[in-house]
Amino acid sequence: MKLAEFRLRYNLNPLPELDLIQLSEELRQAAVLIALYEREQELELILTRRPSHLRAHPGQISFPGGKVERSDPSHQFTALREAEEEIGLLSTNVEVIGSLPAHKTFTGFEITPFVGIVKQPFNPILDPGEVDEYFTVPLSFLLKRYNRHTECFKRKGVQYPVHFIPYQDYFIWGATAAMIDLLCRQLCPDSHLSRS
C-alpha cells in the first residue's frame, strides 16, 4: 500500500468494532507511536524489541513509547518524546495523522496509540536501556488477514482475545499485535470476513 492510499483509507474508513476488556483496577497511562515510513513506494511499520532486563514486558516486541510523565502536556507528546528517546526519531520528522482508541492491558496499562508518518529517512539511534533491536515490517504483510491471528484464553474464569503475528524470527503478540490488527481492520474493513 502506498502512502496516498494509506491516508485515504485511514481518513475515510470508520474504526472497526473493538474487543473490549473490562478491568476494574486503576490503569497507568502510556502512549505509543505507530510509525510508518515509505520505502520504495511501500509502507513499513517500525517496531522494537525490548531488552530482557526491563521489569515491564521484557524481550517483547513493541512500538516506541512509554509511560505518560506528569510533565508531558499530552499523550501525543509522550509518544513522540519516547520515540525520540528510544530510537532517535525526531518529533519534527513525524506527521501525526490520528490516534486509535486506548488499549487496556492485564499488566495495568491503558495505552493510547498515535499513528504517524515519518517524513524523511533517518538513522535509528537506539537507547540500549530501552531498546534491544529496531526492525520494520511491510504493511502489505500485516494487511493480509491470514498473517494476523487471534486466540481466546481464560483468565479468572473470563475469556479474552489474545492477538499474535509471527513475522520472520519475530513473534509479535499482546497489545502491540492487537493495535496492529485494529489498524489493519480500519484500513481494510472487509478483512474481518476472512478471519482465521
Automatic annotation (TrEMBL):
Which ranges carry the Nudix hydrolase domain?
A: 27-159
Work out whether the entry's keyword set contains Ion transport: no
Cofactor(s) needed, names only, are:
Mg(2+); Mn(2+)
> What Gene3D superfamilies is this protein classified in?
Nucleoside Triphosphate Pyrophosphohydrolase
- Enumerate the SUPFAM superfamilies for this protein: Nudix (SSF55811)
Q: Which UniProt keywords apply?
A: Hydrolase, Magnesium, Manganese, Metal-binding
Q: Name one Pfam family in it.
A: NUDIX
What PANTHER family does the entry give? MITOCHONDRIAL COENZYME A DIPHOSPHATASE NUDT8, NUDIX HYDROLASE
Q: What is this protein called?
A: CoA pyrophosphatase
Recorded source organism is Shewanella schlegeliana
